[in-house]
């Protein structure tokens, strides 16, 4: 019952997709056409909605198209790096300070622990093995 | 914040892990102090005192990474270095030898086999290094021939060859134990075992080195170095926390009569996806020429010998710095390519009905991830290399010698990187119990 109902919905989706059929990858999930179709539909919708990632895709395509000289390619690589760096989420000042403090405290604790251990072991070993002879 | 450290100890399973790791560290430090059989502890101590006043430094890096155990000729004298070298060699070979690559692709079983090979190689390298060091110690070169009145391995009634081979066997076995300790920490403790042990070694050297700077150069220089250290710490934290978030949308799917999925998440791609491993790899590769130098004939130096001696092993020589810089760049890309496989991630996303908005699932997604990763790793690699090299350069300019090496970028980078990783792991464990960690 539910199966046939879904089929009906699919028909509509499929019709919608027909135009973009070559643009949609459908080698997976052949048996679960319901979810595949749903995915396609969302993919199409988000594609039209999301402008930011569309430009991303364009740059990917550009990279494989033409081949300028070595300097041109290096220049573009650097520009792409800068473009990606703009999308990076950097830690806020508060986050940075807490993390830095926690790391400093942790390192300080470890330094003390290891320092005390070493002191103790050095004393013990000196006691057991003595000063040594010439 | 302190209460969070306490609550870390109050959580039963986390407490168990922390105490386990601490226990491993205790064993590690014990082995690093315990002298090998046949080595005169008192004489070695005298020699170290003598050498520290003079100009040593040939083995400063190695001594740092073994936590001062090397010059003491202790049971753990070789430290974790042979293991690191072995794992670098095997990972590099994976790219070259098809059979190893096949093994790596096999998943769990193949990985176990590669680990097994790494262990064998480690033992081989350990035997090699142990024999080299024992030979050096006997000839007095280990202490720059400044310490002939206190023989490290004194004559006894037992024949010398027996003593020497016992020392070599002990050190090799020690390396095996360290390897095991590291793997146990990775398995049952907190953090990556290899990194934690290196962290411990460096932590063991820092106080005494800091004190020697203070006594030899006075408070102002000491304060300056602490300030530089704090700046480096902040910079490292800043870069390690930066991430590029690739949005992922999950499709809604019907299972029976229920709707599942439809959530949107992101893949966090860190700017420095590789962590501090590239630095450890690069610096441990850079010590190999030092080792080779000791095995070469010092009385009849050829061109290669002079080049290595003059440029490659001097911490503040431009050849050393350039090679180090390039090695870090290489290993960052190399390690990212090993640990993050875009094809696998893309396949997994496809399997669970996830996709990056605007990018088709499957191959285009993996290409997209690869594109981002290769672009974003460039600044990450540069940052690692610059932080690792800059203090050396700076110290070279100021005119200090390599006695200050433990406060160079490498050590601080490893300390902070491992510290941050470990703290974050503790934090995530803590979050499973109560919602407030110490990184609010």
TrEMBL record, chain B:
It is found in: Cell membrane; Membrane. InterPro entries: SecY (IPR026593), SecY/SEC61-alpha (IPR002208), SecY_CS (IPR030659), SecY_dom_sf (IPR023201). GO terms for cellular component: plasma membrane. GO terms for biological process: intracellular protein transmembrane transport; protein targeting; protein transport by the Sec complex. The keyword GTP-binding does not apply. Its main location: membrane. It is a multi-pass membrane protein. Component of the Sec protein translocase complex. Heterotrimer consisting of SecY, SecE and SecG subunits. The heterotrimers can form oligomers, although 1 heterotrimer is thought to be able to translocate proteins. Interacts with the ribosome. Interacts with SecDF, and other proteins may be involved. Interacts with SecA. Belongs to the SecY/SEC61-alpha family. The central subunit of the protein translocation channel SecYEG. Consists of two halves formed by TMs 1-5 and 6-10. These two domains form a lateral gate at the front which open onto the bilayer between TMs 2 and 7, and are clamped together by SecE at the back. The channel is closed by both a pore ring composed of hydrophobic SecY resides and a short helix (helix 2A) on the extracellular side of the membrane which forms a plug. The plug probably moves laterally to allow the channel to open. The ring and the pore may move independently. This is Protein translocase subunit SecY. It comes from Rugosimonospora africana. The gene is secY.
